[in-house]
What we know:
By secondary structure, this protein is of the alpha+beta class. The chain has 19 helices and 16 strands. The chain has a domain at 7-63 and 121-237: Serine Threonine Protein Phosphatase 5, Tetratricopeptide repeat (Alpha Horseshoe), CATH 1.25.40.890. The two termini are 32 Å apart.
Amino acid sequence: xxxxxxxxxxxxxxxxxxxxxxxxxxxxxxxxxxxxxxxxxxxxxxxxxxxxxxxxxxxxxxxxxxxxxxxxxxxxxxxxxxxxxxxxxxxxxxxxxxxxxxxxxxxxxxxxxxxxxxxxxxxxxxxxxxxxxxxxxxxxxxxxxxxxxxxxxxxxxxxxxxxxxxxxxxxxxxxxxxxxxxxxxxxxxxxxxxxxxxxxxxxxxxxxxxxxxxxxxxxxxxxxxxxxxxxxxxxxxxxxxxxxxxxxxxxxxxxxxxxxxxxxxxxxxxxxxxxxxxxxxxxxxxxxxxxxxxxxxxxxxxxxxxxxxxxxxxxxxxxxxxxxxxxxxxxxxxxxxxxxxxxxxxxxxxxxxxxxxxxxxxxxxxxxxxxxxxxxxxxxxxxxxxxxxxxxxxxxxxxxxxxxxxxxxxxxxxxxxxxxxxxxxxxxxxxxxxxxxxxxxxxxxxxxxxxxxxxxxxxxxxxxxxxxxxxxxxxxxxxxxxxxxxxxxxxxxxxxxxxxxxxxxxxxxxxxxxxxxxxxxxxxxxxxxxxxxxxxxxxxxxxxxxxxxxxxxxxxxxxxxxxxxxxxxxxxxxxxxxxxxxxxxxxxxxxxxxxxxxxxxxxxxxxxxxxxxxxxxxxxxxxxxxxxxxxxxxxxxxxxxxxxxxxxxxxxxxxxxxxxxxxxxxxxxxxxxxxxx
Length: 677
């Protein structure tokens, strides 16, 4: 399948149609079809089997963010940083304000690279798949079949038309909404819409999709079309997905940035106004946010009642540091992100809502499993590139007593006395998710040392204090931390979990259920008339109040060994303070999943200190090396614990959106570049 490079050719160029016939489980093979598989439109659309085969390619073109090339970058916020060996990658280019690099940097999922063809390019694939959706919708009358078949075909096409537009909008702002498969004879000179105008069009399609599709994977299995792939419908688009994205679409449209941009447009001002927060960070469009809250309330009622198969994955471990699951747990939090020794099973557990196609056997071992751990002495194989968390992210993980370490007050971070955080024991009594996600000083990194060289055996425990062996800028952590949320620490040269025999598989979902709880809480807080309303269940959601939704996530991780308390009263004294806590909860629960840049962007905080500064934690060890071999590292006492600036990002108002490719903005006058670029 040949891909073109501009919107012009992607929208109006000829499309090669693929016949159906493969089950969904084999949709990753669609791009490798022989020439004999290229057929005329009357073949592609004539029956359900062929039509569904035509749609399968769209699933297969959803970018797998973790596997764009040999090393990836999808965290553009203040939560992540590459070591110096990875400074060419897109996340560091964002740190420099060099947003134009997205189009030329073949390690970035926005454009993609050479790995696995063009499969991993959001920009190229969006325009291509939008045209496929429009061609399918326009040819639905060609389908000879029953209404149930037409409904699920149309439902998927409407969903995908909205989804590809929405994903582009999150990074590039409002765009033309393409709802026709234009002929090659003319360039479709459609006006560029505002974000809110484009969101309205997306919402129409998400609603249509929700009205046509089965409720969830189990619902798919019960349909006549779904019975053809029974038991393999987990990744198919369904009503629940469409409703979740409808809610997200409304929340994004109602966020402070989008409200401010709409005001600027209505005032006739071409540039983005008010990039500084100045209180506008809490100024939501209440009409959109109410629609979001009502939609999320509807889906959370379904979850609470057990009407859908989606539920929060369990957080039950016999050893939290090593992600050793409790044998009685039915589901597992880690399985949302990776699986091991399960025949390359697709991650997601019971919680992942939106994912792309199955990534394939051994797909994670080259370009994902080896970029999160220390490269000192070759402890983790491959080159020296490391993607690791900033101290900013570490400070977002609060305390077991439900308190944040820092409060946001007048745009500044202020130490929270109620947290009882002790800088001499900085890792003690933290949120349980900290111990699941973060690798810190003294952590037992390599459990089996038999295969290590004599030099490597010196580093089976992490030395991440200032001046420690794993703090080298080229082969270690510049911030004092590694992360194992997406890839477990056993992916190293001793434990060898990235070897073929362990069948390590990873996939980063685009949406999971915890995100829905968080978005509901934010939408409810955005429209709350007073503080009391935060604790009240609205008529459209009998399952949860805004506070209940956050506490549900905390209840999930709470245990006798690792307690976690609810949102505390001092964080609910004002609507704004509760919103701060919801935002912090997003930073922790969704850490390293690629949402942070979009969140800071839509909250009008992307250009605001302290979010423009990435920093490290520096401290001195007081315990001996031998102490860590017999004690829990979280109990270690340290001295002189403090933060040091690592990178200050020179971001200004234009950086709230990525620039469009220059060659595309010259297509016609109605397709202008983003302001400032």
